[in-house]
Specification:
By secondary structure, this protein is an all-alpha fold. It is built from five helices and no strands. The longest helix has 30 residues.
Length: 128
C-alpha cells in the first residue's frame, strides 16, 4: 500500500481543489457561497476518500463515493460554464482533471476486483 499523498489520483484531486479554489474566487457573492462552497466541499471530500480507500480492505464503497462526488463537481462546473460564471477554458481545465480522477478511480476499482477474483494462493504468493 503506497502512501496516499504519493498516489497520482491524490495529486490530481489536490489539483482539482486548487482549480476549484481559483474558480470560486471570482464568482458573484451569492454563487460563491452556494455553488462555490459546494464545489470546494466536494473536492475536499474527494481528497478525504482517497486515503480511506487506500487503507481499506474493501476499497469499492470509497471509490464509488469518490466517483459520485467527482460527478457532482463536474455537474456544478458545467452549470457555472453554462451560466457564464466561468470561462470555457476554466471549465475545460476542471473537466480534464475530473476525467483523470475518474479514470484512475475506475482503474483502481478494476485492479482491486481483478485481485479479488484470483485464487487465494495466487494473491498471497503461495505456490501450488
Amino acid at each position: 500500500m503506497a502512501l496516499h499523498s504519493n498516489l497520482p489520483i491524490y495529486k490530481a484531486a489536490y489539483d482539482l481543489l486548487g482549480i476549484s479554489t481559483d474558480l470560486v474566487r471570482n464568482l458573484p457573492r451569492d454563487i460563491k457561497s452556494s455553488l462555490g462552497g459546494k464545489i470546494r466541499d466536494e473536492c475536499i471530500e474527494i481528497l478525504v476518500l482517497i486515503p480511506r480507500a487506500n487503507a481499506a480492505d474493501d476499497k469499492s464503497p470509497h471509490i464509488g463515493e469518490m466517483l459520485e462526488r467527482v460527478q457532482v463537481v463536474e455537474f456544478l462546473m458545467r452549470l457555472l460554464r453554462d451560466k457564464r460564471f466561468i470561462s470555457v477554458k476554466q471549465y475545460a481545465r476542471g473537466a480534464q482533471v475530473t476525467t483523470a480522477i475518474g479514470k484512475q478511480a475506475n482503474g483502481w476499482r478494476r485492479a482491486m476486483q481483478a485481485s479479488h477474483s484470483r485464487p487465494l494462493r495466487e494473491r498471497h504468493g503461495a505456490r501450488a
